[in-house]
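Worked problem 6 (solution included).
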Amino acid sequence: MLIAIARRSTSLRTLLAVALVTLAGLAFAANEINAKVESALALESRPEADRERDRNRRPLETLNFFGLKDDMRVLELIPGGGWYTRVLAPVLADTGQLYVAIGTGRIEKNLLNQPGFEQVELLGTTDNLRRPEGSRFYTVDDFDFDVSGLDMVLTFRNLHNFDAESRAKINSQVFKSLKSGGLYGVVDHTMRHMEPANYENRRRIDPVLVIKEMLDQGFELVDYTDLHYRADDELKYEVGRRSVSGNTDRFTLLFRKP
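Solution. The predicted structure is:
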C-alpha cells in the first residue's frame, strides 16, 4: 500500500511539473506576442491619427482575444487605409506571413510600397469589389483567395458593408482558406437585433445575424468579448454622426473552422 501511495505521489509531482512548465511556456509566448504588438504600436512610422485611435480600438487586447501568434499565416480582409495592417505586418514579419485581400486599393497605393511592408502578400481579389448605383451595399463577384492552410483571418468593421449574398461568398472563401482549427476574428458596429434596415443603421449589422451566417458556413462560435462595448451608444444613429463617431458599440466575435 505504501508503494502504491508513493507511486501516486510521484505521478502527481510529475503532472504538476508538466503543468508548471506548460504554463510557463504559455506565459512566455503571451509576453512575447504582447511585446511585438506593443513594439509595432510604438513605431515612429505610424501616423498620429492612427495612434489617437489606440485607446478606442484596443488593438493589443483585441489581438490577444483572437489568439494571434507571431508565427501564424494571417489574412486581413478589407484593410481600408491599413490601420491594422500597420500593426500586423511588423508582428508577423520574422516568422509569420500577412496576406491582404478585397478592397486593398488604398494600401497598395500608400502603404505596401513602404519599408517594412515588402513581405505583405496581396491576394488577387482586388478588382471584384463594387457598389451598384443606388445600393447601400457593396457586392463581390465569385472569387477564390487561392491560398489554403491559413491560421487566422481577421476583418475589422467591414461585414456591414456587404449584402447577404456577398457576405456568404466572403465567409465561404474564408472557411475554404483556413486550416482545420483555423480562427476567424470579426469586429463590427452593432445593430439592434431584428431592426429593419434604415438610413441610420446602414453601417451596422446584427451580431445575431453574423453568428447565424457563420454557423451556416460551418464555423463554430468560440467566444465573444465586451472589449468594444459602449453603454452610451443607443444603436439608433448612423456611425458617422458626430455624436457617435469613434464611440460606437462594436461586437467582437471569434469563430473556428472545425
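Discussion: The CA atoms of residues 25 and 205 lie 39 Å apart.
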